[in-house]
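Appendix B. Raw example, untouched.
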Amino acid sequence: MSKLLVVVGATGNQGSSVINAVLQHDPSYKIRGITRDTSTAAAKALSDKGVEMVVADRYNVLSLRLAFKGATAIFAVTDFWQPYFKALASHARLREVLVAPRLNFHSARRLAEEDEIDQGRKIVNAACGLDTLDHFILSSLPDARVVSGGKHDTLAHTVGKARTLEYLRSLDKPYHPSHAGNREGKTLWRKTTVLWVGYYMENWMNMPWSKAKKTGDDTYAIRTPFPPNTPISLTAVADIGRYVSSLLTTGVAVRPVLAVSDRRTMAQMTATLAAATNKTITYEQISAEQFETENPGLGLMLAKMMAYMAEYGFCRDDFETVGAKDLGVGPLTSFNRFVRSVDDWTSFFEE
């Protein structure tokens, strides 16, 4: 009997990785991809591979329930960054960014957090009550408040994910009328695997704050507030799908799955990038204020994230997690291997 995997955010980084891995490794699954627009090139490419592409809205429970119908497994991910950048753009149009840049950052962050919480609750409510469902895989992040003992409670893109998980856990309690869908939620939580994904290796190519800035004749510098010799948990996007494909075989994990590919310091990654691109690149640790000046609307928020990661890592060592060896995932992508796989690093350099 064929099984049905439904992927939320099918054309995004995580969703497309999951789809490609399952297509390659587990032909027993039919795949349905959820997107906002099936006419895009990315959606058509997945359709050409045999994926059933459907339109659904993460903010609309009814559309999600229709898209989830018949699902054996669901992979779900929420989005902080698109609402954040949308809020920043809106504030810029109102000229708030010129009047009070710090207020602009904080208000945009709060709007994006609430938006992501709304997405998460609606996805969870839509998945409740699916009698065909065996496995609900939710991409999330460690709760910064728990990891830091309350020191960090507004850590940007972790807040919405943590609140979504709190909401899902809250459904695993005796029924109360104030909790919509609680009867079904009790069962859903026990079918849930939480997936923790590290810092994308691909961010080196795609994000403005990761670019190497020109400092002289053919010399460049990477400048962030992160300490040069503290390891960072990294995830290659392709490896996310490998973890999920293994989970579909092994079943529900009772502890969070740490979907990490490699751990490297900023100094090590800078050296690897310099060797691969044949450029002179140095790493410079700068202040949060300098970082905000170079990355308006982003620097302060990212600096908080980096300070947290520098102090606590991805999650504390005493947290019980499931890793690649437990799931038989491999081979994973090392940072060196990722860098060698990129043919063109032109976009990485800011002249």
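End of appendix B.
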